[in-house]
Amino acid sequence: MTGMTAPPFAVISGAEVQRALAGRERQITELVEETYRIHGAGDSVNPPSYFLRFPDRPSDRIIALPASIGGKLRVDGLKWISSFPGNVAAGIPRASAVLILNDHDTGYPFACLESSIISATRTAASAAVAADWLTRGRPRPSRVGFFGVGLIARYIHTFLAGTGWSFDEIGVHDLSAEHAAGFRGYLEEAGSGRITVYEDAEQLIRSSDLVVFATIAGEPHVSDPSWFGHNPVVLHVSLRDLAPEILLASTNLVDDVEHCLKASTSPHLVEQLTGSRDFLAGTLDDVMAGRVTVPADRPVVFSPFGLGVLDLAVGKYVYDEVTRAGELHVIDDFFHEVRRYAPGPA
Ligand SMILES: NC(=O)c1ccc[n+]([C@@H]2O[C@H](COP(=O)([O-])OP(=O)(O)OC[C@H]3O[C@@H](n4cnc5c(N)ncnc54)[C@H](O)[C@@H]3O)[C@@H](O)[C@H]2O)c1
């Protein structure tokens, strides 16, 4: 083929990622919505995530999320994200990640981006999109409860606040009093509503119309459906907190059915228990497209597996912003062997 060249290879640091995304909550939620629509329309490739686990370190994992997104976004790539929960005690974040973007025409990787911020951002944006769509048929919640308050909870709060939500009451619950206090400090600085730290999980849930789960629980620890008798909207971002009884008493939505019914998520446990997928109402895209309506007289639980296409969409947004600002840090000579029969650069 003529006219094709290997694209330059850029490295984008976490500081650059953060600058490109700061204050852009509305743009990013719109981008995430658009990505869900493209994915829902089938113009994407999003194979199952690959979980690399270690027999000698059972709580650690590294996940590979390859994906390709079409539409006007048109980019391929891979997120490679580690979760080492022991990091938190050592004072560094649990998750760390890179995102590789690949050129649509040549397949060449053209950027490597720090991706823990991109990952937290797309997760928070997808939670904000869900909070918006799933509350349209009911009074807009003014009491939010955060169940598990690490980095993801902070990003979700930032995205809710940045897309127009304000709350009269904010509830906080965490197994660690220190983490609850840290999150309270963040909320106070963000200038939120009345903050209550609940030691008791039941009280947090009963006091919240919008509940955000962002723990690192590996198996269900909330199992009493009566706690949800006031029909809250539940953003089940950490995926494994709720026992099957809760899901069976709720309207269940996911981001992608095949993805979500894997890896011992709560929806996966329900499928194993009931032998069917009848408990699922559909995807968030089904709700956005009007194919599924969400009744107000039941709890609604959104369990988002987290799709690689979202990382690509947000990563490409960051790349375009950094390029537009003229700040792209290109690694000269990264691709060195580019002439077929002559060693070295062109
Ligand atoms: N679905 C997605 O797309 C997606 C994307 C990114 C992260 N996540 C998930 O979000 C979760 C939170 O991530 P993070 O980076 O904020 O983690 P983190 O380690 O920073 O924070 C987790 C917090 O939950 C608390 N916690 C753990 N178990 C608890 C329990 N049973 N009850 C109450 N609190 C509990 C911990 O003390 C900690 O403060 C993880 O499970 C992660 O896998 C999901």
Structural class by secondary-structure content: alpha/beta
> Which runs of at least 5 residues are low in confidence (pLDDT < 50)?
none
Give the amount of beta strand, in percent: 15-25%
SSE pattern: EHHEEEEEEHEHEHEHEEHEHHEHEHE
Helix content: 25-40%
Determine the number of helices (DSSP H or I, runs of at least 4 residues).
11
End-to-end CA span: 16 Å
Give the cofactors and ligands: nicotinamide-adenine-dinucleotide
3D structure, described in words:
- There is one protein chain.
- The protein is of the alpha/beta class and 346 residues long.
- The protein has helices at 14-21, 25-40, 116-134, 151-162, 177-190, 201-206, 244-248, 257-260, 266-274, 284-288, 308-324; strands at residues 9-12, 44-45, 50-54, 57-69, 75-83, 95-102, 109-114, 143-147, 169-173, 194-197, 210-213, 233-236, 251-254, 280-283, 300-303, 330-331.
- Strand 3 (50-54) and strand 4 (57-69) form a beta hairpin.
- Bound molecules: nicotinamide-adenine-dinucleotide.
- Nicotinamide-adenine-dinucleotide is lined by residues 88, 94-95, 119, 123, 147-153, 173-176, 179, 214-217, 221, 237-239, 304-306.
